Amino acid sequence: MIKQQTNKLSRRDFLKATAAGAAAVGTGAVPLPVAAQDDPINLIMWSNFSAGSALEAVDAMVAAINEANSDIVVEHTGFQNEDYKATILNTAFAGGAPPDIFASVGFEWLFAFVRPGAVLDITDYYEANLRDRYIPGIEATYDFEGRFWAVPWRVGSTPFIHYNLNLFDQIGASPDDIATVDGLMDVCEKGLAAGITPIGFGNKNQWNAVHWISNFVKNIMGAESANALFSMREGSWADAEPIEGATRMKTFVDNGYFGNSLNESYGVGSQLYWAGESLMLGTGGWEVSGLVRKMEEDPEFRGDFKEFPVEVGKPGLGSDWIFWGSLWAASASDDNAAIQARLKVLDAVGSAAMQGLSFQVRQDSYAARGAVAASGVEIAGPTAKYYELYENATALLPIPDVAIPTQATATMYEEFQGMLLGHVSVEDALNEIADAIDRFRPE
Amino acid sequence: MKQAQMSQSAGLFRLPRLLRTVRPKISAKDVVHGLMVLPALVFYIPLFVVPILLGLAVSFGDWSGVAGALDMEWIGAENYVELAGDRKFWSSLGITLRYAAMVVPSQLLIGLLLAATINSGKGMLSAGVKVAILTPIAMSAVAIGILATFLFSPQIGIPALISNEPVDLFAEPNGALLGVSIAHVWGGIGFTTFIFLAGLQAIPEELYEAAKIDGAGLMARFRRVTIPLLRETTIVNLILIFIGAFRSFGLIYTMTRGGPYRATEVLSFFMYKQAFVSFRMSYGSAIAVILFLIIATITLFKIRLTRAGTTRYY
Amino acid sequence: MNDETPVLRISRFAIFICLLVIMAYPIFWSIMSSVKTNAELVANPFSIPREPQIDNIVELWVEGDFIRYFRNTLIISLVTVIGVVTMSTMAGYVFSQRATGAYKFLFLLFLFGLMVPREVVIVPVFRIIASLGLRNTLGGVILVYMAGTSFGIVLMRTYFLSVPTELREAALIDGCSEFGVFFRIYVPLAAPAMVTVSIFAFFFSWNDLLWPLILIQQPEWFTLVQGVLRYQDEFTIDWSKRSAGLVFSILPPLIFYLIFNRGIQSGLTAGAIKM
Asked: What is the pLDDT of residues A211-268, one digit of tens each?
């Protein structure tokens, strides 16, 4: 029986949590060198968390930060993801009037703002106060040319496969079968024979396939070479091994393992799994909380997850994780008081206390170690498995969009989806990606 | 009052003789006309003309569109040179032309048939249809796009209604372009029909009567009277629809985002993606300049054409 | 025409009915969808709602601040309409009287406004509005809309060109000033075209998403369309709530259109053909 204390938060719990978080900050859990201000400084904070529990999680944090600090007032606005990424934030920066604090979705994306000097360099503060809070490997996502530009908020692992045990029983498959890629393909075939979509996988937003292809490529190349490729230190996407990895993904599509979900949004694809209509859901750690919720609502549903399968006879994924996540950064400023206020907010959102608070609302991920303990949420069932992995991790490995120039990531996303939908050949797609990376590779 | 009466020739202000000989005369009418154009200019120049010129300037530089535009590096016509060799640019141009090829003939033909049908009918139903076909002009492209997405959705749309294994129109390159085209024609058909209706109503009834006396049937009259006299209206309509197809952005943005793959990435969307998604504002601006040149050429062609014509529609 | 055959009449009737269905159905459908629960919408997308409920609507208006969005949108639209129609009528009049030299150049300048994709001007316009301190104000958005006079000017000019010059000459002989001629003779005659310009300015300012998205980031000043978009999230699609929002954003201009459709019909064709 899975039990979780604050799975569904009432408004009252929510306020209580907010107050508790405020107390945690206020009582000196996060000591800060900020000069006293007569008038509170207003800070505009933007993110792509515009609805649902992600918005609640940010709001909980912001309320607690405002409660605990009389000298600053943070105002948060969340925007619909695509508009935020492709129009709103760029325009604000380009027009010289960016928000004080902003969320970065995707990683290399942040550096597009760092390059022209629009982001606050927090290196000194980070080294002195923040570094020890996070898993070392995570730094790759906000380390640009040796300087630090952001704090991580929610990060998690992606190479997981969720599976439906009832359907596995029905087709005579076992979770052990999907430890290898060949085994996974056998299970998919059994599903197809039984008329069940093997894997719910929506890639209309184009990021989902990047994670899977990264997994296949890592399987074939080994973690070290793959990491060198992803961060453009050596190799090219047009090399034989990435092509082999991408071809593996293409085989899954051609065999019908993703059913008709490939051109659907991520939500529609995963809905197949939650509705008990697909054997598996190929995705990351953030769905673990969904699993807990689903099993509470529907005791008949038996789901679980395991790590992404390995290729027999190949180096495999290694013990490090590929991950997703989001960061908070501040815009650059010449004004010392403004800089101090921004650092104060970054410190807070990057703290275990605040991340524990948002964890109470949305139990999928966090970045500061100890956030789960600070949240007071009792971890059990599938979640325990996930967080044990996380708290004990020693390093995280990047997915490609950590390092590939923003001008080229759009090409990568688009070409992968085009290749999977059969509009362009695997070789052409990877050549196109390699060309784009070469063209925009920093000197 | 007397002064004003004179204003056309004499001028309100009596300037010294010497000045009058060196300067063009400024009449009261000039002053009034100047003041009447001024308000529109006060908004239009700084908020449209200046930004356009800045956009033109940016297209000759290398700006990401993120920050620091003022110290942008000038690279001359490099963006345009790159554009000429960019496969994606040419494929976008091709897609735009294919989109126009789907939209233009269908909107033109359907519009003509509707106009002829409405023109021949009388009474409530005909009036009701006239109202109904123009309703989309009250809606934004975003709203039309959302509605079309609903109705073509394989989960809850018409495909789900007619088949157990519903097709996802937007998964197929041609299907997606077709879907957007249908929404485009739906939104624009009223306008086209109305222009045809105005053209039809300008045809003197006597011509039909004369043709009837000559023994021409309904189809013969349509062919011999209506079609030739509608020639100019048809060309105007053709150009308007063409421009509409070339400028289309909102529908693509809402319905397909240029996908699947690049199947619906028309020029305007290609520009948007380069400028804002790929952080290449300068390159995007160069695309915008090309798009502008295409549309401007067509528009100027139309102006010349309508000026040459003698028919009045009102 | 007396030689119409029954076949012709019946087929015309059939075409009319089909047309009515094609044009009206999507709108009718979205209204129906807005009073269904999401579950019912997904299960029976095309049926009449079994148990109509107004939860979606209540949520938008009561919990979702729609009253405020409605107010903001209304203010923006009203000011825009008044400004645009006034400026377009005046400038359109002048361009109908003058077609040489600087005026010809200025008219062409306005004409270019109809050809330039507005996505190009986003960043410079943002800069100007921000430097005026007008971000997160309705005034900033209104200023941008006030620059959108091209269509109105072209349409008004066309309309004024059709006014017989005898009227003008008679008025001048009667001692009318130039402005008097415009105001007493031309403006009353141009009422239908002014209605058309107003309506288009209204439709545009009501429906536009791009400028509010870029210029307004405080929910307090959001417009209706921005409000509708607030209720979407990458992972979930709540079709019924989306339809409810959609209905509210399209109904006011639709009602407006139905009231003024005659004026729109006549003004529209005149302006478009002869620009």
From this structure: 899 889 989 998 888 888 888 888 999 999 999 999 999 999 999 999 888 888 888 8
Task: Report d(CA C177, CA C174) in Å as an integer.
Answer: 9
Residues of chain A with pLDDT under 50: 1-33, 37
C133 interfacial to chain A (CB closer than 8 Å): no
| C183 alpha carbon, distance to own chain's centre | 26
Write out chain A residues lying below 8 Å of B280, CB-based. Answer: 407
Which candidate, A215, A147, A219, A140, places its Cα nearest to that of A396? A140
Chain A residue numbers touching C135 (CB-CB < 8 A)? 97
User: How far apart are the two ends of chain A, measured CA to CA in Å?
Assistant: 56
Cis ω before B260 (30° cut-off from 0): yes
The CATH number for C200's domain is 1.10.3720.10
Please give the Cα distance from B96 to B99 (Å, whole number). 5
Domain count, chain A: 2
Q: How many structural domains compose chain C?
A: 1
- For the CA atoms of C151, C156, C158, C164, what is the dihedral angle to 10 degrees? 180
Residue C125 lies in a domain: yes
C239 within some domain: yes
Region C262-268 average pLDDT: 71
Closest-CA residue in chain B for A262?
A: B171
Provide the H-helix boundaries in A69-199. Answer: 81-83, 89-94, 108-114, 123-125, 165-171, 181-193
A131-160 residue pLDDT tens? 889 887 788 888 888 899 999 988 877 788
Among candidates B201, B194, B206, which has minimal Cα distance to B237? B194
Residue C90 pLDDT level (bands cut at 50, 70, 90): very high
Question: Which of A363, A390, A417 is the last residue in one of the domains?
Answer: A390
Among B120, B133, B295, select the one facing C115 at the smallest CB separation.
Answer: B295
Percent of chain C residues past pLDDT 90, beyond the cut: 20
> Is A267's CB within 8 Å of C235's CB?
yes
Q: What is the CATH number of domain B78-308?
A: 1.10.3720.10
- Domain extent, residue A98, equals 2-7+37-156+324-390
The verdict on ipTM greater than 0.90 is no
Clarify whether residues A185 and A296 are in a common domain.
yes
